[in-house]
Design goal:
520 residues; mainly beta; 6-stranded antiparallel sheet; globular
């Protein structure tokens, strides 16, 4: 089972409250023969935590960024995100629709999730595949001339639908939802993981490449899907009531630093650089280092990461008044030369593990750090590819397609089973566009309208190639470490072909790729 993870105080308290309120007869049942908790017992356990309340948020269609909390959500204060050593203040803890637990587990080939450990049970480890487990939610989304009104509950109310991906391909409802806590990494054998303390997998991740990497056609695994994206966006809107996600969590979007060593060393685990450069580098972040035998400084070139890629900064030590040694967690020593190149890289997974509640390691808004929302770690400094969403440029515009069942996903285009989510918004010419609001279409929460900016409307950019383009493009979400204000929860770069990979493209595992489609 791996090393036992000691749960933080908040998690233990939530588990204790849940167990105390429901009695021993409703605790999850662990089957020693299968090594799993029974899904029926977990579903019953989560059902006992329901509060049956309708939490709503009204998202204005105009340029205003502030949203209005409605229903049971009205009057609940926005959380105050935390940093390491200062826990978040989150009034949504223990509210039914916002309930979540960290678990180990996975997904079977038919799409059914399973749980092998729950944080606090003595079996749990963040070095095993780690997920955020939530109850299946029910939603009602209505639209007026002025706003999109979103309501979420843990109990089905009249008019409500199940959340995206709640139904398995056979029509049965999932017993619960699983969302990958961590960005995609791979083990020594190349197996996709969702674990703490790993360098993220980039450089070879694309929509098309993810199909083979995840063995999507024969397993329940896929790259991140629209349903995973929807959960984070819905929770953010309900909790923080703003369309401007970067005003709360900037993510690692302004951390584009390169430096040359100021001295040559051998058999070392450090790189000595100028103090002004070192002052910009955060302990705990990750960097890449290469011999820089070519002339191009782009991180995509192998010679700019051939010594290490994604090594964590462990400390900084002054060498003299002008130079600082930056130390790295690496498997073996290396040599340096003044012609080499050191560059920032996407953060390692688990960088927010010490943050209690929503928040970032030391600052949520400095543009250098990842963040966590509802237990899910995001914004590590690379785009996250969606595995079941593609944009088709038709020569006269662009249409977004969502494929409910990733078993049918194919390279180069969407399958016939894919559903239209409508037009990809933006002007006819190529460039960044800014939508005014968002709504959910066939399971994808997508931008709507045009004419906003980084400070009004949705505030996050969506990049569109010219309407005259013909072909398929992948859906790149969130933003990378140097894109700045265009990034955020609603950011999409729609310029890269479906098979394009880059050092700044990653993703995460999904347990929700196999679905019947938008649930009734």
């Amino acid at each position: 089972m791996g090393k036992t993870h000691i749960a933080d105080h908040e998690t233990l308290e939530r588990v204790a409250i849940a167990l105390e309120s429901m009695g021993a007869s409703t605790v999850p049942i662990f089957n020693e023969e299968t090594g799993r908790y029974t899904n029926a017992s977990i579903a019953a356990w989560l059902a006992k935590m329901r509060d049956g309340k309708n939490y709503g948020v009204s998202v204005p269609k105009g340029s205003a960024t502030a949203c209005t909390k409605t229903g049971a959500n009205a009057g609940i204060a926005n959380p105050k995100p935390g940093i390491i050593g200062r826990a978040a203040i989150d009034p949504y803890v223990n509210h039914g629709a916002f309930t979540f637990f960290e678990v180990n587990g996975g997904v079977d080939a038919d799409g059914t999730p399973y749980v092998t450990a729950i944080d606090g049970d003595g079996r749990f480890s963040r070095t095993d595949d780690t997920w955020i487990m939530t109850p299946v939610l029910y939603t009602l989304e209505t639209e007026t001339n002025d706003a999109v009104n979103i309501t979420v509950s843990d109990t089905r109310q009249p008019g409500m639908k199940r959340q995206p991906a709640a139904l398995l391909p056979n029509g049965a409802q999932r017993p619960y939802m699983l969302y990958a806590k961590y960005a995609l990494s791979v083990d020594a054998e190349g197996k996709p993981r969702s674990v703490s303390g790993a360098a993220v997998k980039t450089r070879s991740v694309s929509h098309d490449g993810g199909i083979g990497l995840m063995k999507t056609a024969s397993t329940g695994d896929s790259l991140k899907v629209a349903a995973d994206d929807w959960y984070v966006k819905a929770m953010f809107l309900l909790k923080y009531a703003t369309k401007n996600s970067q005003s709360v969590f900037a993510g690692c979007t302004g951390y584009d630093i390169t430096a040359a060593p100021t001295r040559a060393e051998s058999n070392t685990t450090r790189v000595v650089i100028a103090k002004d450069k070192a002052d910009q580098i955060l302990i705990g972040s990750a960097m890449m280092f290469g011999t820089h035998t070519g002339t191009n400084t782009d991180r995509g070139n192998s010679y700019n990461c051939d010594i290490f890629d994604g090594a964590r900064v462990t400390k900084k030590v002054a060498v003299d008044a002008s130079n600082v040694a930056v130390y790295f967690d690496v498997a073996k020593p290396f040599s340096t030369a003044t012609t080499y190149q050191l560059s920032t890289a996407p953060w390692n997974t688990g960088s927010c593990d010490m943050v209690e509640g929503d928040g970032s390691p030391t600052s949520c808004t400095d543009g250098k750090q990842p963040f966590v929302v509802q237990g899910i770690e995001l914004g590590l400094g690379m785009y996250e590819v969606l595995g079941n969403v593609l944009i088709q440029y038709t020569g006269t515009g662009a249409v977004v397609y969502v494929n409910p069942d990733t078993k049918n996903e194919k390279a180069g285009s969407s399958p016939d089973s894919a559903l239209s989510a409508g037009a990809f918004p933006g002007q006819a010419a190529e460039g960044w566009n800014y939508a005014l609001y968002c709504k959910t279409v066939n399971g994808l929460m997508i931008q709507q309208g045009t004419g906003a900016s980084t400070s009004v409307g949705i505030c996050d950019g969506n990049y569109k190639v010219a309407d005259t383009t013909v072909g398929w493009r992948e859906w790149l979400s969130l933003g990378s470490l140097g894109v700045g204000g265009v990034a955020g929860l609603w950011c999409v770069d729609g310029s890269a072909g479906s098979g394009v990979a880059w050092w700044g493209f990653g993703s995460r595992r999904s347990a929700n790729g196999r679905s019947r489609g938008e649930a009734a």
